[in-house]
Amino acid sequence: MGLSTHVLDTMHGTPAAGMSVALYVTHEARGVFGDFGQIATLVQRFVLNADGRNPGGLLYDHTSLRAGTYRLVFDVASYFKSRGVVLPEPNFLDHVNLDFGVAHEDQHYHVPLLVSPWSYSTYRGS
After folding, report:
1. How far apart are CA 74 and CA 36, in angstroms?
2. How far is CA 63 from the centre of its chain?
3. What are the distances in angstroms from CA 67 to CA 38, 45, 126?
4. CA–CA separation, 15 vs 82, rounded Å?
5. Residue 48 carries which DSSP code?
6. Rounded distance, CA 122 to CA 62, Å?
7. Which of 51, 83, 87, 117 is 20 to 30 Å from 105 at the Cα level?
8. Burial label, 67 (beta-carbon count in 10 A; 0-12, 13-18, 19+)
9. Is residue 96 classed as helix, strand or coil in its secondary structure?
10. Which residues, other chains included, contact 17 with Cβ-Cβ below 8 Å and sequence gap of 6+?
11. In Å, how far are 34, 47, 102, 108, 112 from 115, measured between CA atoms?
12. Cα–Cα distance between 93 and 110 in angstroms, integer?
């Protein structure tokens, strides 16, 4: 149980080792004029290991995961530049932001990202 992520580089057919990722907790905030915005609080930053995963294991274990909304931010452009991929300026994908909700604290939430410099896909994995 808990929260985890895994990133695969679909351009090279490998795990995205060395990609920087940030995890945030998010919540809605109401402004003075009734408008809404989202506030994101940084939980942790990490660099993916050789398997494309957080070297520290779970982002939240089963005892600390709470129902709510979260954001994972993947530094896609910097990763591909570090792999020698020539990208246009501005990059088509710079950072990929995945906003998702956790409804059941007793379940495992795995958030994989399959990414190239021009596309990405995600889903709730197992």
Report:
1. 25
2. 21
3. 17, 21, 18
4. 14
5. -
6. 22
7. 51
8. exposed
9. strand
10. 48, 49, 50, 51, 52
11. 37, 16, 23, 22, 10
12. 22
Structure tokens of 63?
């005892």
Q: Which residues contact 42 (CB under 8 A, 6 or more apart)?
A: 22, 23, 24
d(CA 107, CA 52): 22
Residues making up the chain, counted from first to last: 126
Q: Which two tokens stand for residue 41?
A: 């609080």
